[in-house]
Amino acid sequence: MEIRRPRWPRTRAGQRRLVQAVMAGCVLALLPATWLRVSTADRLRTTADVPRTEVAVVFGAGLWQGEPSPYLAHRLDAAAELYRTGRIEVVLVTGDNSREDYDEPDAMRAYLTKHGVPDARIVSDYAGFDTWDSCVRAKKIFGVDRAVLISQGFHIRRAAALCEAAGVDSYGVGVAAKHDVTWYYGGAREVFAAGKAALDAVLRPDPRFLGPAEPGVARALAAER
User: Rounded CA gap, 99 and 122, in Å?
Assistant: First the structure.
C-alpha cells in the first residue's frame, strides 16, 4: 500500500491556513506552561527567604543503586538546611514505592537522617506516584494545609500550582541543578507535563491510591525537637 507524503498547499490561501493552524497549535500547546508561570509568580522563594512553615514536602526524583539520585540529593540537602535553620519542623518525603526493590521514601529518609534531620521529624508517603498524587495525599491523607515545596527549578512551578489546586497553601523552593542532559530533558518534559497539570487542576481526579488518613505529620510536629 502506497503511503502519500503530506504536501505543501499549492495556493496562497491554503498555505496561509496551514501556517495559521500551526501557530494556533503552538499557542494552545504553550498555554498550560504560561498558566504555570503566571499562577506561581509570587510563590517562589529561596532557602534563605522562604516563610517559616511547619511542613516541607520533598518530591521524589529517582534512585541510583538504591541511593537518592544527585537531583534528589540536592532537594534533600535543601530540606535539611531549612530544618537546621528552623524554617521548617517536619519533612514529608513523597515518592514511588510501587515495587519491593524500589523505595524512594525510605532512601530519602535515610539520607535526611544522615544529614541531621531526626527520624521522628520525617514522614513518608509511599504512594506519591506523580506530582498531583503527592499534593492530594499531602492534603487529604496527611492533613497538610500549608507547606514549603522543594524540587528543581524546572519542576517547582508545576508542583506549586498543583498543590494550590489540591488545597495546600504553598511556597516553592527551586534548588539549583547542573545544566546537564537530565536538566534539559526535565525542562523539555515540563512543557508536556504542564498540559496534564492543567487537566489535573481542573478535573481534580483522585490519586492512584488514596487510603485512610494518617496522623504521621501531626505526630511528628508533636515530637520533641
Answer: 21
